Amino acid sequence: MNDVAALNPEVTVTACAPEALLRLDLWTGPADGVLPNAGHALDAFQGRIIGIEPAAWLLRAPMPQESEAGTWLAGLAGDHGAVIVLTGGLVRFRLEGARWRELLTINAVFDVENPAFAPGSVAATILNHAAIWIDVVTDAAADVYCLPSYSEHLATGWRHAISRMD
Amino acid sequence: MFLIACPHCGPRSQAEFVYERAEEAVAYPDGTPQETLAALYTRANPRDFAWELWRHAYGCRGWIRMRRHRTTHEIAEIEAVGARL
Amino acid sequence: MIDRDRGIAFTFDGRTYEGYPGDTLASALLAQGVHLMGRSFKYHRPRGVMAAGVEEPNALVGVGTGGRFEPNTRATDLFIYEGLKAVSQNRWPSLGLDIGAANSLIARFIPAGFYYKTFIGPPWLWKIYEHVIRQAAGLGAAPNAAEADAFEHRAAFCDVLVVGSGPAGLAAALAASEAGARVILAEQDIRLGGALLRDPATLDGLSALDWIAEAEARLKTLGARILTRTTAMGYYDHNQLTLIERRVEAGQTPGPGGLAQRLWRVRAGKVVIAAGASERPVLFSNNDRPGVMLAQAARSYRRRFGVLPGRRAIIATNNDDAYRTALDLAEAGAEIVAILDSRPLADSPICQAARAKFRAHLDARLVAALGSKRVNGATAVVAGRTISVEGDLIAVSGGFTPLVHLHMQAGGALDWNDAGGAFTPGAGRQGQISAGAAARREGLSEVLADGARAGGEAASALGFRSGTAREAPIAATAFDAPHHTLARFETAPGVNLKTAFVDTQNDVTAADIDLAWREGYRSVEHLKRYTTLGMATDQGKSSNILGLARLAAAEGRTVPEVGLTTFRPPFTPVTLGALAGEATGADMAPLRRTPLFSVHAALSPPWQPVGYWQRPRAYPRPGESLAAAGLREALCVRQSVGMTDISTLGKFEIVGPDAAAFLARICATPVAKLAVGRGRYTFMLREDGMVVDDGTLWRLDEHRYLLTSSTGGADRMPALLSYVRHILDPGLKVAFASVQERWGAVAVAGPGAAAVVRSLGLEPPAHMGLTRGSVDAGQVLVLAASYSGERAFEIYAPAHELTDLWRRLDTAITSEGGTTYGLEALELLRIEKGHIETGAEIDGRRTPGDLDLQRMLRGKGGYVGAPALARPALTDPQRLRFVGLEAVSGAPIPEGAMLLTKAAGRPHGHVTSAGLRLDGSGAGIALSLLKAGPERLGETLIAASPSRGRNVLVRVVSPVFHDPEGTRYRE
Fold it and tell me: Does the beta carbon of A105 lie under 8 angstroms from any beta carbon of chain B?
């Protein structure tokens, strides 16, 4: 899959190379202090741990570390949770530039331009028919995760949208 | 599109949710056949507030029960329900 | 507000004219002395421009060319640009000489609703009428080329949305922004200001234009989003509104990316509706002639566009505001021939000022306009006496209608103001607040104060408070007072009702309203539909109240008693492209791609849409038909080996101490005894006992399972899994996730399949067993399951490694003399094997018993659907049940055919899947649902397909045509 062309320096979209992805569910007990609350994300394990649901997290780590990451998460789970490997099951796009939020208002329903949606915030929502998760990394950068089957569709939509931006 | 205040995610567009069923339409697998048929096929549908189950399918994937007015669409109450509260 | 330094050339009806930036088509044409701009819908009467804004009913043009053509565009809502091409509508051969005008001669035969009466009489005659009426109907021509431009949908959020940027709207936006609220200001015009662009004023010591510019700058500094050329189209639930933003004018070539319009979905906390009020015309004979204009519009043309719409003006009014028109036009050099005021008294300062300069009559009402293609005078009745005056402009003001559309769409109520003859916004149900003229505030100071109050209230209701309460802007204007409207809807004596137009766009006259009432159409809903009052593209903005008042008078009731029809979006016409956004053509729906999409695409297979996915139907060789390719691929699988991409199938991983208990809810088959490393066929029911999907269940580990489903089920199953997890059995210690896209999968099937698997360095598991392994350092899962009926293996690899796996398999398959196969072959194989399929035999109305799955049901129950299976109706042996068919002659059996016992009987069932024997005979076989099917083996039926013109004699047989003992997939 190709990078979406950087037609506008104010917002670029890049598809990231495949990474290890693991899901942690906890069904009883308090979440470990290490884990972010739902709707938030933290750097962890040379990657990112994202609170995608009230009792579920997604860990994104470098591919060679998939096994280690699984062990680490299983430790957090103990016997009140479970780990499911999802590697290959999501594509990550990195959006960068001053206008990444504006790009994410197109065919969208989520208030991405709200200043309260600040770095460290995560939102699951729907964009252009596709389920996505938005992880605000810095003021000028955010990651968008989507299913691989929709990634080409989203990338094409973004390409067209960027070409229309004045 | 309604604005639905998800207890976990905050106010979100109805486009992120799926209306699942009226609350009284839940048929438990261990129920009697009579209970099952009543739940499946008997519906009051008043021109009034009523409780419904919605699922935040594109958000936190959680479930809520909502008290919504069937004609004005005013949402009076929302509560999280589900496996982990 | 016109830039005369730069000329803009445009054409109207083929003739070139020059206008200036800031001109609308209407103002530019008027400036060039063009007053005839259209022909009316039914009678083809000559029409000019009546208004200066979007309420314009007459001056409709088609603008642009090809895929950019927009019909029914109001000339008052179109800002000219270089190269604009506009044409008038509904006339032939020309505007000046229109043979349709002959309709006026037969007017008495074609009043409102005449076409309903054409149903009386013989049907053959009606077909002639219908053809003629259909040809004559419609105003503009539809474009005949595909849409050329792009449209975009955006989401926006704010605390306070202000609709309208006149004095009330600007004051509201400033107040809300100063208080710290997030504000969006939407203005349909090309510039901010509203009524301030029409009437001179000083605000906070500045000229109106300077004050507007400063307000705009201040709003931008405070972070407000200002959208011009943006109309609020509709008010929906929970304070969501749709706005349509024009990025270019109708027919104009867009900029980069081709973006013509944006549709904004705005969610607001509060909405200030400062949309203004629409001036009303007056009823008199020939009140539709070019030269009859709304009084405020005449002022707009003079002050904003620098055009005098006439040199000798007659003013007819029931309020003070039209006196301002007299003073304004006179200041620009026009002669005010007469002011005809229908009120008995008019002595406010402005009326006195005007009466000092011009001839003004009280108790005076117009009877008729004179002239045909342009007004040249009028007759009126003044205190009972008829007078005649000359003039080329009749400026009328019948009062003001607050624009309550958005308020009503938001579920608001209306109050009635009798003197004004107007509905005003009453109690609101959502977050709407009307302000300014939209709330029937009159006089600039009053309007500004009202706007500031509304904006401040909106902000403080949401918790925003300004540190220093902002004062409303201070206005200084010549006449700052209410209009003192005295509404009077009845026509003057002597008015010819047949030419007193109520709805000019649909040619509905006062006589038509009376006719409808006489014929018994007395409800406002009937009046609207029978006469088409208010149903044209202007949606009755200038006509609805006039029609209602006439109905009320006939009924002897008040207007509020008669009521109103429903206000529906859009406020002004919207092009379908804006509603569609990018979802057109190939982009109607997303194309979901498996990891192997480009590998398949390189072979250009015929594609089968499966939900949002596309799957190859087959891989035909050059010159090979689809059917032949499918048959060849299926035979290859039976005889040798084949491989196919099954990545789209649903896959779920379920893990936890209660995983088996959870699966016992989902699956109607036994679950608990499944050993680690083993799998089994399973199926899932809906709560009403119907089979909704089938698949396989594999035990990966003590507490870890993999559940597969059909492709369609992959989107349906997460809902069922979630429902069980959270609602039906929330206490379980279990987690699940869709791994549909984490694992890509390839099925390898055929006698040579085990050898292919071995050639990859993997040990083929026994039937319904699984193993883990690796291929080229990539981990894989191998599941021994067969859909085709041959020895088969589903090889799972992480999605990003699937392409490599496919290439390895392709090499191995080819060297075994095998082939890739697609859906056609897959279908032929599974049909011959008698495997049911979701979407075919599993059609959502079949119980496990119907599908011959009852032996696999878990006796203990406890699964979704179990209680419903006890219903007596579900055990009736006469239900449609799964059974096979073979063609008596061997001909192909039509899929979907009805099964009959005699040629014209009632169907006993239908063919669900049609296939062929793969034993070399190619004989037609099928799977079907037939009443009491399994009890009718050997019976002969007719498979009838009227749509294909085929009847095939078939015999009822077992559905398993191939390897009934199941020896093929055990080594």
Answer: no
Domains of chain C in sequence order: 1-142 (3.10.20.440), 150-277+402-476 (3.50.50.60), 281-398 (3.50.50.60), 490-555 (1.10.10), 591-648+742-821 (3.30.1360.120), 650-739 (3.30.70.1400), 870-957 (2.40.30.110)
Interface confidence: ipTM more than 0.95:
yes
Specify the CATH number for the domain of residue B73. 3.30.2270.10
| Structure tokens belonging to residue C715 | 């989107």
Q: Is A2 on the interface with C (CB under 8 A)?
A: no
Q: Which of C740, C662, C669, C745 is nearest to C704 (CA)?
A: C662
Task: Summarize the confidence of residues C51-60 as an average pLDDT.
Answer: 96
C434, two tokens: 């009307």
B58 with A124: Cβ contact below 8 A: yes
Do residues C767 and C969 lie in contact, with contact meaning Cβ atoms separated by under 8 Å?
yes
Domains of chain A, residue spans:
12-16+89-164, 20-85
Which residues in C690-715 are b (16+ Cβ under 10 Å) and which e? bbbbbbbbbbbeebbbbbbbbbbbbe
Of C255, C737, C799, the CB nearest to A166: C255
CA–CA separation, C717 vs C339, rounded Å?
75
Give the domain range for residue B39. 3-26+34-81
C954 C-beta neighbours (distance < 10 Å), count: 26
Residue whose tokens read 């799955």: C853
Could you report the per-residue pLDDT of C24-34, keeping only the tens digit for each?
A: 999 999 999 99
Question: Which residues in chain C have their CB less than 8 angstroms from residue B31's CB?
Answer: 867
The per-residue pLDDT for range C682-697, each reduced to its tens digit, is 999 999 999 999 999 9
Query: What is the pTM assigned to this prediction?
Result: 0.95
CA distances from C580 to C192, C537, C587 (A): 28, 20, 10
Alpha helices in C476-558 (DSSP H): 510-518, 524-531, 544-555
Chain A and chain C share a number of CB contacts under 8 A equal to 109
Neighbouring CB atoms inside 10 A of A57's CB total 26
Q: If we measure between CA atoms, which residue out of C524, C526, C525, C544 comes closest to residue C534?
A: C544
The answer to whether the beta carbons of residues C437 and C166 sit under 8 Å apart is yes
Q: Mark yes or no for CB contact C726/B63 under 8 Å.
A: yes
Taking a contact as any Cβ pair under 8 Å apart, which residues of chain C between 353 and 412 contact chain A? none
User: Which residues in chain A have Cβ-Cβ distances shorter than 8 Å to C268?
Assistant: none
Cβ of B60 within 8 Å of Cβ of A52? The answer is: yes
B-contacting residues of A 107-126, CB under 8 Å?
A: 109-110, 123-126
In this complex, the chains that touch A, judged by 3 or more CB pairs closer than 8 A, are: B, C
Q: How far apart are CA C608 and CA C630, in angstroms?
A: 13
Interface of A with C in 103-122 (CB under 8 A): 105-111, 113-114
Question: Which CATH number applies to A20-85: 3.30.70.1520, 1.10.3090.10, 3.40.50.720, 3.40.50.150?
Answer: 3.30.70.1520
User: Which architecture, in CATH terms, is A12-16+89-164?
Assistant: 2-Layer Sandwich (3.30)
Residue B44 forms contact with C (CB below 8 Å)? no
Report pLDDT digits (tens) over C167-207.
999 999 999 999 999 999 999 999 999 999 999 899 999 99
Contacts of B9 in chain A (CB under 8 A): 38-39, 123-124
- B2 and C238 within 8 Å at the Cβ level: the answer is yes
Ramachandran sector of residue C113 (left: φ over 0; alpha: ψ -120 to 50; beta: rest):
left
Q: Which residues of B touch C864 (CB under 8 A)?
A: 29
Average pLDDT over chain C, rounded to whole? 95
Asked whether A22 and A85 are in contact (CB, 8 A), the reply is: yes
In B, minimum Cα distance to C860 occurs at: B30
In chain C, positions 99-158, which contact chain A (CB-CB < 8 Å)?
A: 150, 152-157
